[in-house]
Amino acid sequence: MAARTIAIYGKGGIGKSFTTTNLSATFALMNQRVLQLGCDPKHDSTTSLFGGISLPTVTDIFAEKNAQNEQLSISDIVFRRDVPDFPQPIYGIELGGPQVGRGCGGRGIISGFDVLEKLGIFKWDIDIILMDFLGDVVCGGFATPLARSLSEEVILVTNNDRQSIFTANNICQANNYFRTIGGQSRLLGLIINRDDGSGVAERYAEAAGITVLMKVPYNADARDKDDSFDFAIRLPEIREKFHKLAQDIVADRITPCEAVGLDFMGFVRLFGEVSNDAPQPATADELFGRKASDSGNQTVAAKSSLESDDLKMARCIEKLTPEQQEVYRMVELEKRAIGEIAELTQREESAIRELLASARKELTRLFFEN
């Protein structure tokens, strides 16, 4: 039976590889034969999966073999890790990419898939192939699984910040586009990583018609596991979430979404009121007519503006209630997790989330109305 293929997309740096690696490990614990395919020029997807070992990439090995007029084999680019307490080994491949400024990463992805298809990747005795894909690059190479229907299913990973949600929305739109021209990749839903309880990603998912598959709260111990190249699913609270998702995937309990994504104005309006005014055009006279000395004055003015914004925000924070101030500072300035704050302040986590949400809403009002 052909392997089940799932492409996992997300903005760089939000925990996409963390999510993919722990999902791979979960499938292996469930006695599934799993292959993790890293599709990011940083080639860091499988590092944690292999205990800190950096795998040779398809891009580099293919170039070496080609230079020596030698044939590339499966053993050159596919590696396995036998974890002592796992019933199945875990397999890994890194596609890799060119060094910064020396080539097109997307082109490397396309060439890498051509190599893997020639080696029969979709005929191997593998149950699940997880493809770890960078989502904030718009070139066609990174959309290869969608464009060529190489991934049966797609999972989006995001945080609660606007840029990572914007990236998820782009991938949703891209997948919908390819479906309109014959693509077969189905969107399973969205994973919220490092969930801070603000509900921003959930509001987006509801507006876009995307199922929230899993919410993983920020967890310092999980981060430490990942930093030390170990699996975060060794922690019971993390393992439980990943195990449920993996079970739902294997048992086909997830109904694919029909979401098309939000258009730009629909997206930005999720984050606040947006003016419908047309932008004010600059003139050639004002751009060419300034004296050189004005440039320095402009820089000073810009710096002063930034400083005044910081001061303005500080004054706004001072106008919050003491409880709102305490929670806001602990989250935004001290970068503490919701659970940790709940322990320190002896409040329920739900109360912390409500205080944080009300503080952010009040700050937005204070900052833009004064």
TrEMBL record:
Residues 312-363 form the RNA polymerase sigma factor 70 region 4 type domain. Keywords: 4Fe-4S, ATP-binding, Iron, Iron-sulfur, Metal-binding, Nucleotide-binding, Oxidoreductase. One of its GO terms (molecular function) is metal ion binding. It is an enzyme of class 1 (oxidoreductase). Pfam families: Fer4_NifH (PF00142), Sigma70_r4_2 (PF08281). Its EC number is 1.18.6.1. Its cofactor is [4Fe-4S] cluster. GO terms for biological process: bacteriochlorophyll biosynthetic process; DNA-templated transcription initiation; photosynthesis. SUPFAM superfamilies: P-loop containing nucleoside triphosphate hydrolases, Sigma3 and sigma4 domains of RNA polymerase sigma factors. InterPro entries: BchX (IPR010246), NifH/chlL_CS (IPR030655), NifH/frxC (IPR000392), P-loop_NTPase (IPR027417), RNA_pol_sigma70_r4_t2 (IPR013249), RNA_pol_sigma_r3/r4-like (IPR013324), WH-like_DNA-bd_sf (IPR036388). Gene3D superfamilies: P-loop containing nucleotide triphosphate hydrolases (3.40.50.300), Winged helix-like DNA-binding domain superfamily/Winged helix DNA-binding domain (1.10.10.10). The keyword Metal-binding applies. The keyword Ribonucleoprotein does not apply. Belongs to the NifH/BchL/ChlL family. This is Chlorophyllide reductase iron protein subunit X. It comes from Pelodictyon phaeoclathratiforme (strain DSM 5477 / BU-1).
